[in-house]
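Q: What residues go here?
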């Protein structure tokens, strides 16, 4: 493909602060960046992409996903009698580096096919540097924009020195994933410091190292009721800053949310996974009440669909249902219903901020990286188009994804991935079978069969 491309004649949703949306316009890509957005653009030596009957918009940003778990997509509670979720501890111990590569590659290709151009990959499968190298190679081979969150599996009782491994990654391994990958730190989840002093000392050490290395911090928060107050405690100790993204936040109290807002930290919600995986309802209204605009993520494909269309619908439906319940109960002075124009920003502009990429991604404005998705509007599932943003949020799914660009490079064209999908599929099937047999899940035996 040429270093220049002209996406011509689509409905362009820039979602930018300086560049308006257009009913019909062109987008010029030049050397990986958005060069111009407007009507009647011309460019020599540019590949032409016919965007008639499409919506052209920023690629979706998935702000939290454990991509290595892609081998066990949709397994739900299988293998546990249907009573409890299948924990990562059941199968994670049995992964080898080649399994991490296969899972990460197929997971990232699935993201591209869903119109996602940025994935924050919380890779908590780092038993040693071989696993890190395997995951980074998959990031490089997939080609989309990623944030590689280095984390040691807490469920494995690992004796690995996470700090030393992170330092090695930054100083000697980061380039293995290519220019499209940013490294971040995924330390252990903070808990109430007054109950666990060793955890506090470890957290201070981990967060200090991340900042010394210039890395963003992504931290799970509020998994347990006992964690209420932990974020406000972090803030009081001067640890909570704008370079932190807090994930889930299901069991935090008002003081915690006030601290997040006042310190301008970011939040990532994974509404489908949180509700089906046992974390509870996402605290979306508490965020909205304080002007906190979250990013959305997949988290774990074991119990969640792997696309952002589903996450947008989960978020907006949850907020609407919550307010309608209050209205039926006779409550007055209720907040406004979440609009499609707000929720589409959760998976673009706000998602880019939560990923630490607000300066380069999330909107189609001149100078930003050309991370773009082209969505077909002539399909029966959305035609006729009455409101383009409403169509994206309420009506579309992965079948509408036509072209996907990351830094101006076409990763999907005319609905077909620009990748060796058969190789990725073969590697994933072999890895899934190997790990499933070793862990006792045996799901590999039923794939393609009747089980």
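A:
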């Amino acid at each position: 493909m040429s270093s220049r491309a002209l996406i011509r004649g689509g409905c362009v949703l820039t979602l930018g602060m300086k560049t308006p949306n257009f009913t019909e316009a062109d987008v010029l890509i030049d050397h990986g960046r958005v060069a111009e957005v407007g009507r009647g653009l011309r460019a020599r030596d540019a590949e032409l992409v016919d965007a008639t009957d499409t919506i052209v918009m920023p690629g979706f940003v998935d702000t939290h996903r454990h991509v290595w778990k892609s081998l066990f997509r949709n397994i739900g509670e299988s293998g546990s009698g249907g009573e409890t979720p299948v924990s990562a501890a059941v199968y994670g111990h049995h992964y080898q580096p080649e399994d991490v590569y296969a899972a990460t590659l197929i997971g990232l290709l699935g993201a591209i096919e869903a119109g996602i151009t940025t994935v924050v990959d919380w890779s908590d499968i780092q038993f040693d540097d071989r696993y890190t190298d395997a995951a980074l190679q998959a990031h490089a081979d997939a080609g989309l924009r990623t944030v590689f969150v280095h984390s040691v599996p807490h469920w494995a009782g690992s004796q690995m020195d996470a700090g030393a491994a992170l330092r090695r990654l930054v100083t000697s391994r980061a380039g293995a994933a290519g220019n499209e990958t940013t490294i971040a730190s995924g330390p252990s989840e903070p808990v109430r410091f007054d109950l666990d002093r060793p955890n506090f000392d470890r957290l201070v050490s981990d967060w200090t190292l991340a900042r010394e290395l210039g890395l963003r911090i992504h931290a799970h928060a509020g998994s347990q009721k006992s964690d209420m107050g932990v974020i406000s405690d972090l803030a009081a100790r001067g640890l909570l800053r704008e370079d932190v993204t807090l994930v889930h936040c299901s069991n935090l109290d008002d003081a915690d949310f006030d601290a997040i807002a006042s310190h301008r930290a970011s939040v990532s919600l994974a509404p489908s996974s949180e509700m089906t995986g046992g974390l509870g309802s996402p605290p979306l209204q508490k965020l909205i009440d304080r002007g906190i605009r979250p990013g959305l993520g997949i988290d774990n494909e074991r119990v969640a669909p792997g696309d952002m269309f589903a996450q947008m619908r989960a978020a907006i439906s949850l907020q609407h249902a919550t307010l309608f319940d209050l209205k039926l109960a006779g409550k007055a002075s209720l907040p406004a219903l979440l609009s499609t124009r707000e929720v589409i920003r959760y998976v673009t502009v706000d998602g880019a901020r939560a990923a630490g990429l607000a300066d380069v991604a999330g909107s189609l404005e001149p100078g930003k990286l050309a991370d773009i998705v082209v969505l077909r509007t002539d399909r029966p599932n959305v035609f006729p188009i009455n409101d383009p943003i409403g169509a994206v949020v309420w009506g579309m799914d992965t079948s509408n994804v036509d072209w996907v660009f990351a830094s101006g490079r076409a990763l999907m064209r005319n609905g077909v991935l620009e990748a060796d999908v058969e190789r990725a599929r073969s590697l994933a099937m072999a890895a899934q079978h190997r790990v499933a047999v070793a862990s006792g899940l045996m799901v590999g035996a039923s794939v393609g069969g009747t089980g």
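A: Context that may help when evaluating the design: The first strand starts at residue 4 and ends at 12. The chain is about 35% helix and 20% strand.
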